[in-house]
Design goal:
Strand order of the largest sheet: 6-7-8-3-9-10
Largest sheet: 6 strands, mixed
Distance between the termini: 39 Å
Helix content: 25-40%
């Protein structure tokens, strides 16, 4: 595993934003037991971008996220992620793909009894091999983990058990753990759904900073429209498994996005 590249001082360059996409999906179909969930989906996510994925419950957001790492059955089209053709991967290469994709979830997925530092270190398991979680990580891994904890603002919590932290702090641990993988792409599935608005803002600012400063593209599914409009570069909107909207956030409004939620009434604008 190579050391992390130093972050550039300014926002993502035009060169990064026009680079080849690290997530590229074309005419993607996903079905469970012959029941279609996604149909004809296209999307690109480029280095330096934070792209928000919106849609009503049941629109296919989580299924799309799962398909990008081989956890949902692709039945048509193509998906390329971090240089891998997801539709034609053998098991060994699928493991490699998943180690190159950092994932952040709504429920944090931390190990509550273990320390914050050890939780972050688990992000290096693919690189460290068979080790003892209690003390088998290298000094290099420990140093990196502390650097990432400092970056997300909770280095002072390193020795505390994860269960002692607030929800917002636990999500920061999860982001540090994802960074520990040295990911080429980050997928964040409803990462702020269980946080209050202020904490949600801070977590999304952190994710966008990672995209901008490190050039790691972030695809984040959200359910609060103002958060998507404020924190993303582009918005993708799913409805009934089809991509209905794909546009820069600056060109969209809550009113324009309402078409994604018509059958549910007014889209949500608060927690």
């Amino acid at each position: 595993m190579s050391a992390p590249a130093s972050a550039p001082a300014g926002p993502a360059t035009d060169e990064l934003r026009h680079a080849l996409p690290l997530v590229s999906v074309r005419n993607l179909d996903v079905a469970y037991s012959h029941q279609p969930v996604l149909a004809g989906v296209d999307l690109d996510v480029r280095p330096g971008e934070m792209v928000a994925l919106l849609g009503a419950s049941g629109s296919g957001k989580s299924t799309l996220m799962k398909s990008l790492t081989g956890f949902a059955p692709i039945t048509g089209g193509t998906a390329r992620v971090a240089g891998y053709d997801v539709t034609n991967l053998r098991r060994g290469d699928l493991r490699k793909l998943r180690s190159d994709v950092g994932q952040v979830f709504q429920q944090f997925n931390l190990i509550p009894r273990l320390s914050v530092l050890t939780n972050v270190l688990t992000g290096a398991l693919h690189d460290a091999g068979l080790i003892n979680l209690a003390g088998g990580f290298s000094s290099r891994h420990r140093r990196l983990a502390m650097e990432y904890l400092d970056r997300v603002g909770i280095a002072d919590k390193a020795k505390e058990p994860a269960r002692a932290l607030s929800g917002g702090q636990q999500q920061r641990v999860a982001i540090a753990r994802a960074l520990m993988q040295q990911p080429r792409v980050i997928l964040a599935d409803e990462p702020v759904a269980s946080l209050d608005p202020k904490l949600a803002d801070s977590v999304l600012e952190l994710l966008r900073g990672i995209a901008t400063e490190d050039g790691i593209p972030v695809l984040v599914s959200l359910h609060v429209l103002p958060l998507a409009l404020e924190h993303s570069d582009r918005i993708l909107g799913l409805r009934h498994g089809r991509m209905l909207i794909s546009a820069p956030s600056s060109q969209l409004t809550a009113e324009k996005l309402a078409v994604l939620y018509d059958e549910e009434g007014t889209p949500r604008d608060h927690h």
